[in-house]
Amino acid sequence: MNFIKSDRAIEGRIRGSSTEMPQVADAIQEFLSPASPAFRRREILHYNSSMARRRQLFFVAFSFASIPALQLAAQQAPLAPPAPAAARILLLPRRIVSGERATLAVLDSSGRLAPGVTIDFSNGDHIRTDSTGRALFVAPLNPGVIYGSIAGRPGRVSTVILKPTEASAPAMEISAAPLVASLTDRFEISGKGFCGDADANQVAIADHGALVLASSPVALTVLPPAELGAGPAKVTVSCAKRDAPGFSVVFVELELQADSSPLKRGEHRTLTVRVRGTAERISLEARNLAPEVAELEGGNPVRRLSSGGEDENAAAFEVVGRKNGTFLISIRLVPALGRPDRR
Q: In whole angstroms, how far apart are CA 329 and each of 29, 75, 204, 286, 318?
């Protein structure tokens, strides 16, 4: 029996095949990682194609491709940015402030930032992502709920427009942050005094610069740095000469394991997710992205609590083959915001 092992993928996708399909099971990162140790502001003003290549190498390294295939991938030229038609995920800050700047981001199905994507808002406004896959905009003046969607794609994302008085504060403050977060997935921070321009915010995790994907004066969406290891880490936030007291987040990594042999119709397959970085039980969610090919037992999506424990902290999901074709299961940590841990 073959297994997938990913030493950094707390969030990943498992690809597999049913009956005669030759594809193998792969574990891949859900979201992009910065290409350099310090993801400085000036370095992200243009699309960085080496991000895509870095993700591609990660994908190949943890599939069952041969070593020559890995070497070939390493020699390939950097990938071009994803086409606008590939956009799948819209990241809007959960809350924005009337008349103030905010930044949104768009990702493709592999988690790469997608430039040139049009976003339609429910109030009739339209905006297009720039070369970084993000877009800076000014929030509408009328408080309330507004919806955004990727043009030509189903589904929409909501955000709440606050009055300026609801967001004012004499100093930067952080009201909510995750106690546990993924090494390779975005997480959210809520508070006051942030910058609406994502690049103006400086977020450091264990003294490594993190990438701010989306932002508003009251919310940040952050991607951890690639250099970060599993375990507790101090997080600091600053913007425009303002800062807030640091806090601690436990970052965990996930090891995805699955039999890579072809999945037959009616066959049950176990997907095991092993958690490292904490002995606490954490919530994981599996989402079936190809339900016509394979069934995810328990519904779609399905949530499981890991077993907890120092020696074995794991959760298991079951899939059942339905017909020929490639199946795709996304597994990620379920975020839970709380008061920041300042220990």
A: 12, 29, 31, 7, 10
Q: What is the pLDDT of residues 278-324, one digit of tens each?
A: 999 999 999 888 888 889 999 989 999 999 998 899 999 999 998 87
Find where tokens 């103030």 sit. Answer: 100
Task: Judge whether 341 lies within some domain.
Answer: no
Contact 149, 90 (CB under 8 A): yes
User: Kind and range of the H or E element at 203?
Assistant: strand 201-205
Burial class of 48 by CB neighbour count within 10 A (0 to 12, 13 to 18, 19+): buried
Q: What would the pLDDT profile of 125-166 be if each residue is shown by its tens digit?
A: 999 999 999 999 999 999 999 999 999 988 899 999 999 999
Q: Round to whole Å and give the CA distance between 220 and 294.
A: 36
Antiparallel, parallel or unpaired: β 247-257 and 180-182: parallel
Greatest alpha-carbon span in the chain? 64
Provide the domain limits for residue 325. Answer: 12-28+252-335
* 129, two tokens: 């992502």
Look-up: residue for tokens 């969610």?
Answer: 285
Q: Is 21 exposed, middle or buried (0-12, 13-18, 19+ CB in 10 A)?
A: middle
Domain of 270, CATH number, reads 2.60.40
